[in-house]
UniProtKB/TrEMBL annotation:
It comes from the Bacteria. The chain crosses the membrane at residues 34-54, 60-75, 96-120, 126-148, 155-179, 185-202. This is DUF308 domain-containing protein. Keywords: Membrane, Transmembrane, Transmembrane helix. It comes from Bacteroides gallinaceum.
Amino acid sequence: MEEKTLNEKESLEIITRMIQETKNKLEVGDGNMLLLWGYVSVCTAILIYALLLWVQTPQVNWLWFLIPLIGYGVTQKQKRKEANVKPHSSSYVDKISAGIWKSVGIIACLFAAICMAFMFCGYNCWVLMFAYAFIIIGFGSIAQGVIIREQSLTFGGLFSIAAGGVVASCAICDIPIYITWAIPLYILCFIVMMIIPGHIINRKAKKLCRKN
């Protein structure tokens, strides 16, 4: 019994140390990724919002695909650059974080494929992607916030999921979702969920570097 208790204590200490070490490393790198995806999402949404008010044609909505195209392309380029400059081994918690966001990306592809299939059948269900942006990405932010113990990420994710619940409820109840409030809400969510936490994490990283 005593040996089992000792092993449990050791395991908890190891897990705690892994999380703390990963937190410090993620603060340095993860803030930039949050800022990248946050600013790309916000800038794209502002562009689409302006064009929809100006030209008022639904074809403008295809510009939403700029987010994964730009975001993924820059992310892969940055990863290759960091790997060449400062190669490092990933911890188990690093792999969990990567798995979370990889799952978020896979869900995005699946949802987009579903929307495409319905579109070819004469139905418009692209609001699913809008709800995805709020709810699924919000969940990813919460999970990341829990892993690195960053409350701003957790709060931002909760805020985004709540906003997604409103959008989904409107769609279910056949309440019109107008761009005049839906896109500004999208922009606000990504500011709260990614841009603000990204700046907070980078600021903490600078303080950590000064101490070390």
